[in-house]
Amino acid sequence: MRSRAAAFGLLPFAVYVVLFLAVPTLIAIGTGFFDTTGAFTLATVAALGDPVVLTTFFNSFWLSALTAVVGAVVGALVCYALLGTRLDGALRSTVDSLSGVLAQFGGVMLAFAFVATIGIQGMVTVYLRDTFGLDIFENGVWLYSTTGLILPYIYFQVPLMIITFMPALQALKPQWAEANATLGGTTASYWLRIAFPVLAPSFLGSLLLLFANAFSSYATAAALVSQGSQIVPLQIRAALTSETLLGRENLAGALALGMIVVMAVVMVGYSALQSRAARWQQ
């Protein structure tokens, strides 16, 4: 009876997974391997080898990797700095609360915040230009290109790293540091031989999570980048809405299939690293 009640309690989550994960995945696979008439074809998937498509995947890779690395390093340093604070202290509570909010602060709101701050007529841009004669767009308006997505992505990557990596740092047992000191070890030897090896799976797992988070982000890029389709999510939008790609709507399914493959590989790696990290957090 209890097992039936538990299964019934999982029903809403199961419906959510089916509607928003399983069904879109099947649609992406179906549109990638079948044409508009329903006939099986490999032509759409073969379009993934097009130089334009490969360029968009490359742009998504380097943008996701760069923001993930920067976000992971900065977030890990913040977590390390917070180790010396009280768990129930005002500073820790404030950082935890802000991280939870800012990690989800994306899309049009984040794009507008950056446009209002460092846009062509943004507050900071105008102040720097009028006060110091410094024009941050002297060599071109980079904010509305792929390069301009770096700062907004880092903005929500760092809080996400704090949320995911802080539990791993808190799981470091004081007894390990005490044993290291008792055996004549130094602080450097503790971090190099004990802490870093223990934290490595959690750090790499968080890094992969940040990569997946940036790789799949759409709304912020769509709001900032108005010209062209420099990353995969924007290329999918173009395949669905552009008048120059009429008759090739199924290309969006092939692009989505490519993203699913990348995300699946990343999530498998993340799951494996988390399983390894869990052994030290018990």
TrEMBL record:
- Give the primary localization class: membrane
The residues covered by the ABC transmembrane type-1 domain are 57-272
Record's subcellular location: Cell membrane
Annotated membrane topology: Multi-pass membrane protein
An example of a Gene Ontology cellular component annotation for this protein is: plasma membrane
Give TM segment ranges.
61-83, 95-121, 141-169, 190-212, 251-273
User: PROSITE patterns recorded for this chain?
Assistant: ABC_TM1
Annotated InterPro entries: MetI-like, MetI-like_sf
Q: Which UniProt keywords apply?
A: Cell membrane, Membrane, Transmembrane, Transmembrane helix, Transport
Task: Give the record's GO biological process terms.
Answer: transmembrane transport
Q: Which family does it belong to?
A: Belongs to the binding-protein-dependent transport system permease family. CysTW subfamily.
Listed PANTHER family: INNER MEMBRANE ABC TRANSPORTER PERMEASE PROTEIN YDCU-RELATED, INNER MEMBRANE ABC TRANSPORTER PERMEASE PROTEIN YDCU-RELATED-RELATED
Instruction: Report what the protein is called.
Output: ABC transporter permease
Organism field: Cryobacterium glaciale
User: Taxonomic classification, please?
Assistant: Bacteria, Bacillati, Actinomycetota, Actinomycetes, Micrococcales
